[in-house]
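Good morning N.,

You mentioned wanting to compare the apo and holo forms, so I went ahead and generated the holo version with iron/sulfur cluster. This is what I fed in:
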Amino acid sequence: MAGENFSTIVPDTVIPAGPEALSLSDLDPDLDLWAEIDRLRKEKNAVILAHYYQDPEIQDLADFVGDSLDLSRKAANTDADMIVFCGVRFMAEVAKILSPNKTVVLPDVEAGCSLEDSCPPDKFAEFVARHPDHYVVTYINSSARVKALSDVIVTSSNAEHIVRNLPEDKPVLFAPDKHLGAYVQRQTGREMIFWDGTCIVHDLFSERELVKLKARHPDAPVAAHPECHDGILKHADHIGSTRAILDFVTTTPAETVIVATEQHIIHQMRKDAPGKTFLPAPGADGTCNCANCPYMELNTLEKLYLSMLNEAPAVEIDEALRAEAWKPLQRMLDMSPPATSQGKGAKGSKPKAAA
Ligand code: SF4
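and this is what came out, ligand included:
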């Protein structure tokens, strides 16, 4: 697993469950979690949003599965009273920033992100202050406080498009993912400086092992996420966001595809392109074990149920901070190209194995 010794810094925008809340040890092992989650979904008028990197059983019961841009759009437009965010903390924060009057809960308060952790707001404020003539472009994988210091937010779906459309008279300061930033710089030719952050999942893929895997599967194209380092991207036949990678694997005539991103997305690939073979890109030991996000993996059905029941952990953002973080997020939504494809309504029937 990527970053086995990972830890995370919980920001003050996420309020953990209190001592009166039910916990995992209170759960009846015979509880039908699917039925109970469905009951709470109706009772609380809740919408369950899930990222493609979530465990398959969470993807399958979610109302909507998507990438960061899909999920931001969904969170901005839902008429639910409660948003249950099965992803990581910054995604739940985005939902609250865009829909401040909704209750926003997440299954595990520790579900952070190495990119968010790499970019503490006080250090980022100093970096921005040292480059006052730069346009501050911040990847959505960042805290609300870092977003509030930014001119525009981007996702991996729209970063290239947005940077191309920025005024040309200013250089760009890009944070916190230096690999995505470098990729956007190569694509756009813009003058850019970078914050030194990486995703612990995409940074661990091994070029040497990828080359060996390609040699064994010479007809398999490589589809890679731009959070990967250049040693991987230079071998890629397709580079794009999770949604773009999903579109690629369904449209390529190839029967086998090598996938260089978090491997839980392969669940959707198997649904969208049944019959094709998907090979996770390897880490340094030649296996795909580095391709599990340890933060995303913290979310489980049990914790999802408890978060709906307890209405905690919940995101609460001071209005002044929310208003500042909303501006660059809304600018992103305004500058994004229209959705040509987007995430999916996913809520399906209970899997037989779990019945
Ligand atoms: S896969 Fe990487 S970028 Fe995505 S949440 Fe996990 S650590 Fe963050």
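Residues 14-112+295-320+340-354 form a domain with the Rossmann fold fold (CATH 3.40.50.10800).

Happy to go through it together on a call whenever suits you.

Best,
F.
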